[in-house]
Write a structure and sequence with these properties.
Number of strands: 12
Order of helices and strands: HEEHHEHEEHEEHHEHEEHHHHHHHHEEH
Structural class: alpha+beta
Helix content: 40-55%
Distance between the termini: 62 Å
Shape: elongated
Radius of gyration: 29 Å
Strand order of the largest sheet: 1-2-4-5-3
C-alpha cells in the first residue's frame, strides 16, 4: 500500500516551518495536534486497524456528528475486503488528503475527522460536521435589531457547537468538569489560550473544582459558589444567551462557563460597564451606540435616585420647587395620609408584584395583567387618596428606567438598592442621598471580579479603554483590549484605516 512507510524519523525537518509535514508515527502526530489545540478536552481519538496496520482517528466531539461518523467510515470499515484501498472505505463526499499538519488542525476546527495510519505519508480527512436539529431561537431578553438572531439552548453539545462554528481558531480551548456529587452536571469552561490571562484561567478552574454540593442544576448555583463577594448587591458575573456576545468577550480575553441544562453562559471577569453593553451598540454607527449606552447608564442612576429625590424635595427641600409648580405639588399631596416614603414604598411594591405576576403567567395573560393591572391600580389608589398622582408618575418613570437596563441581574440590583437610598432621603434629605451614593460608589471601587477592578477603566484610570466604557468610539480607534482583564495580548488591531491616509 502506497500510503504506508516504515517506522523511522519524523517526515518533517523543522517544526517552525510554515508547512509542517506529518510524522511517520501516529503517536507523534497525535501529540502535535493535542499541543496545537492546547490539550482541549473535546479532542477525541479512536483507534482502528486495517490490513493489520494500526491507525487512529482524531476529531473534535463538539463539532462532529457521530451518526455521520459511523456511516462515513466505521460501518464501511467493518465490511471492508482486503482488496479495497482506504479511499474506497470513506463514503463521505467531502473527502481529501493532505501532508500538512497545520491544514489538518484547521480542518478539525471545521468538523473534519483526521485518519492517520502507522507509517503513513498522508492523512485522510472527511467531514462529519454536526448540524443542529433546529435553529436556536433568539433569546427573548436579549433581542437585537441588527445582527445574528440565534441563541444558546439547554443542550451543552449544541452550545459548544455554536461557539466552535463562530470561532475557527485553534486557541479556543474547552475544559470539562462534572459538578454536583449526586447530579454530576456537565460543565464546560471556554477561553482563548493565547488571549486569556493564565492566572484568571487557573483561578476560575480552582473555584470550579472547589464546588462541593450534591446538586448543580443552574448557573445560579455555580455563581454563588465561585463569586468573590457573595454579599455584594452587584453582580461579578455576566450572563448571556447570545453566541455573538460570548464571542466578543472571549476575543477580549475573558473566560466563559457553560453548564448542561441551561441556556445562560457565565462570563468572567467583567466590569460594571459590561452590563450596559449590547450587540446593537456595535451593529449601528458609533453616534447611536454611544447615545443609547449613555441612556442606559442614565437609567441606572435615575432608577436608583428618582424616588429618593422626590421624597427629599417634598419632605425637606420644598423651597427648590419652581413657583409655578408649588400649587400643583401642594394640591397633590396635602390630603395624602402617608409620608412620601411610604407612598413610594407602596407603589414600588405594587409595581414589583405586577411585574412578578407578568413573568410567572403565560405571555398573553402576563401582558394583559401588566397593562390592565397597572392602569386600574394606579387610577384606584389616586382616586382613593392613598397615593398622590405625582408619586405614580415618579414610580412609573423609575420602573421604565429599570427596564431599560439590558442586564436582568443589574436591573434587580438597582431595584434593591433604591430602598436604602429612599430611607436615607426620608431621614436626611439630599444629604442622605449624597451619603448613600458615596457608600455605593466606594463599595464599587473596592469590588473586584476575579482580580479585575469592577469600575475599570476609571479606577484605575486607563484612558485608552475609555473608548468603550460610557460611550463607544469608532471600532477602528479601539486598538487595545480591556486592561482590567489583563489579557496576554493587549493590542487587538492595528491602524485599520491606513488606506484613508494613502488615498489623500
Amino acid at each position: 500500500m502506497s500510503f504506508f512507510k516504515k517506522k523511522g524519523k519524523p517526515l518533517k525537518t523543522n517544526s517552525n516551518e510554515k508547512t509542517n509535514t506529518i510524522y511517520s508515527t501516529i503517536e507523534e502526530n497525535q501529540q502535535y495536534i493535542c499541543k496545537a489545540l492546547f490539550n482541549t478536552d473535546d479532542l477525541k481519538t479512536r483507534e482502528v486497524t486495517y490490513k493489520e496496520v494500526p491507525g487512529i482517528i482524531i476529531y473534535l466531539e463538539t463539532l462532529v456528528d457521530t451518526e455521520i461518523f459511523q456511516q462515513s467510515f466505521l460501518h464501511p470499515l467493518s465490511e471492508a475486503v482486503d482488496q479495497q484501498n482506504v479511499e474506497e472505505l470513506i463514503t463521505n463526499p467531502e473527502f481529501s488528503k493532505t501532508k500538512d499538519l497545520n491544514k489538518i488542525v484547521s480542518s478539525l476546527l471545521k468538523g473534519d475527522c483526521a485518519l492517520f495510519f502507522q507509517g503513513g505519508t498522508e492523512c485522510f480527512l472527511f467531514n462529519c460536521l454536526q448540524v443542529n436539529p433546529r435553529t436556536p431561537e433568539e433569546p427573548d431578553n436579549e433581542k437585537v435589531v441588527r445582527g445574528a438572531h440565534t441563541g444558546f439552548i439547554e443542550n451543552l453539545d449544541v452550545n459548544l457547537n455554536l461557539v466552535r462554528e463562530r470561532i475557527h481558531n485553534r486557541q479556543l480551548t474547552i475544559k470539562y468538569f462534572k459538578l454536583g456529587q449526586e447530579s454530576h452536571t456537565n460543565v464546560a469552561m471556554i477561553y482563548m489560550s493565547e488571549l486569556a490571562n493564565p492566572s484568571v484561567v487557573e483561578e476560575v478552574q480552582k473555584r470550579l473544582e472547589s464546588i462541593s454540593t450534591d446538586m448543580v442544576f443552574s448557573p445560579g448555583y455555580i455563581e454563588e459558589c465561585i463569586e468573590g463577594h457573595p454579599f455584594s448587591p452587584f453582580q461579578e458575573i455576566l450572563f448571556t444567551e447570545r453566541p455573538d456576545r460570548l464571542e466578543a468577550h472571549l476575543m477580549e480575553g475573558r473566560v466563559a462557563i457553560i453548564s448542561e441544562g441551561s441556556s445562560d453562559v457565565s462570563i468572567v471577569p467583567v466590569t460594571f460597564f459590561s452590563f450596559f453593553q449590547t450587540p446593537d451598540d456595535f451593529n449601528i454607527r458609533f453616534y447611536g451606540g454611544s447615545f443609547f449606552r449613555l441612556l442606559r447608564l442614565f437609567s441606572f442612576w435615575g432608577a436608583l435616585t428618582l424616588p429618593a429625590i422626590y421624597i427629599a424635595v417634598v419632605g425637606f427641600h420644598f423651597e427648590i420647587i419652581p413657583y409655578d409648580m408649588v400649587t400643583i405639588v401642594k394640591g397633590s399631596i396635602e390630603n395624602i395620609p402617608f409620608p412620601p416614603f411610604f407612598e413610594a414604598l407602596i407603589m414600588a411594591i405594587t409595581i414589583e408584584l405586577i411585574r412578578e405576576a407578568g413573568v410567572r403567567l403565560p405571555s398573553p395573560i402576563g401582558q394583559t395583567i401588566g397593562i390592565v393591572g397597572g392602569l386600574i391600580i394606579g387610577d384606584a389608589v389616586v382616586n382613593a387618596g392613598l397615593v398622590s398622582n405625582i408619586m405614580v408618575i415618579v414610580i412609573a418613570l423609575t420602573a421604565i428606567m429599570s427596564f431599560c437596563i439590558p442586564s436582568y441581574e443589574m436591573g434587580n440590583t438597582v431595584r434593591i438598592l433604591s430602598l436604602p437610598v429612599m430611607i436615607a432621603a426620608a431621614t436626611l434629605g439630599f444629604v442622605g442621598i449624597v451619603f448613600s451614593l458615596m457608600i455605593i460608589v466606594i463599595h464599587m471601587c473596592k469590588l473586584e471580579s476575579f482580580g479585575s477592578p469592577y469600575i475599570a477603566p476609571f479606577s484605575p484610570l486607563h484612558v485608552e479603554n475609555l473608548k468603550d466604557a460610557i460611550v463607544r468610539f469608532p471600532i477602528w480607534t479601539m486598538h487595545r483590549r480591556p486592561i482590567g482583564v489583563k489579557p496576554q495580548k493587549p493590542v487587538k488591531q492595528g491602524k485599520s484605516r491606513e488606506w484613508q491616509k494613502n488615498d489623500r
